[in-house]
Design brief:
With 128 residues, this protein is of the alpha/beta class. The chain is built from three helices and six strands; from the N terminus they run βαββαβββα. The strands form two sheets. The protein has a three-stranded mixed β-sheet with strand order 1-2-6, covered by helices on one side. Strands 4-3-5 form a three-stranded mixed β-sheet, with no helix packed on it. Strand 1, helix 1 and strand 2 form a beta-alpha-beta unit.
Length: 128
């Protein structure tokens, strides 16, 4: 059970348009995650969570388990179409993000909610 009441939880929502690079968004996520970790380690129990809703400029990402064989566009096409390519430290294969698509990044302390990761994923799927 969480010592924090449900009424005191705060989540900051940010909407970010395609005028930022994927690196900008990645750096922001890292910054917010580290901020949350520092607050928690300092004993601050009412630190906010963050939800970033991002419309990326065209970008392909590849996760740790991804295969370059699955990228169906050449390096020259990436360059000529000004599409970013970014290696990330998360799981997954090749993913495309681009204009018109909204990607949500949740940076939350699940100790403020519940400890069931599977429930968390199911809840996110239900909301979406």
């Amino acid at each position: 059970m969480c010592a924090m009441s449900e009424a005191s939880r705060q989540v900051i929502l940010s909407r970010i348009g395609p005028d930022h690079t994927y690196q900008d968004i990645w750096s922001l996520q890292t910054h917010l995650q580290q901020k949350l970790i520092r607050a928690k380690r300092s004993g601050i129990s009412d630190h906010p969570g963050y939800v970033l809703l991002v419309e990326h400029a065209p970008v392909y990402t590849i996760g740790k388990s991804g295969s370059m064989d699955h990228l169906r566009i050449s390096q020259s096409q990436l360059e000529s179409e000004e599409i970013e390519f970014f290696k990330i430290n998360r799981g997954g294969d090749i993913t495309y993000h681009g204009p018109g698509q909204i990607t949500g990044y949740l940076i939350l302390d699940l100790d403020q909610y519940y400890h069931d990761l599977h429930r968390y994923v199911r809840d996110i799927e239900e909301v979406i």
